[in-house]
Amino acid sequence: MENEHPVQRRGRPRSVQTHQAILDATIDLLEEQGFEAFSIEAVAARAKVGKPAIYRRWPSREALIVDALASLAADLPFVDTGNLREDLLSLIQAFLWLFSSSKLGALIVQLGTTIVGNPELFARYQQHVIAPHLQELAQRLERAVERGEVRPDIDIATCIHLIIGPLVYHVFISGDLFPTATPFPESLVDTILAGITARV
Asked: Which residues are in the HTH tetR-type domain (predicted)?
């Protein structure tokens, strides 16, 4: 007698497994070969899928590359503590970890000039990798204004520039050439807060 209750298969659906296999292959090939040698054919071979499976999901290699980078960026730790100082410390520590220890940071450094020099790649990178994190930072600042931690007349976009600019300078230009009296994350956060904190 046939079993009336078919056995349920465990694990992720094949479409999800295929999607992740393609992203993993993309990341591996970018690390090994860089952008110029990167091809959809190579991804298909590495992921053991046909090219149509890739093109059904991504219209171009640029779209695939950015989605692969975005999948790594989704794991960046940026804790919402409900306190702006702690939130900013979390952000800065995550940024420093990104470029010192993470696969995403290494790929961004490797692909930096390529991303900026390729209009489609740069536009997609801004939209799918950078913008979500800047929007999250803007929301944290807006909530800090609502809590009375930050002056209501502060321009949020300018605040974001004040936070991100020194981080980029520290990581890519100065490093530890000019050590701060206190650890860099605390020094940067306290300097920024001195200018934007609500007056009591």
From this structure: 16-76
User: How far is the first Cα of the chain from the last one, in angstroms, to the nearest whole number?
Assistant: 79
Q: Parse the chain into domains and list their residue ranges.
A: 13-59, 72-194
Classify domain 72-194 by CATH number: 1.10.357.10
Element (H, E) at 140: helix 131-146
pLDDT for 21-71, tens place per residue? Answer: 999 999 999 999 999 899 999 999 999 999 999 999 999 999 999 999 999
Per-residue pLDDT reduced to its tens digit, 138-167: 999 999 999 999 999 999 999 999 999 999
13-59 falls under which CATH superfamily? Homeodomain-like (1.10.10.60)
Distances (CA, A) of 120 to 14, 40, 56, 100: 30, 16, 19, 27
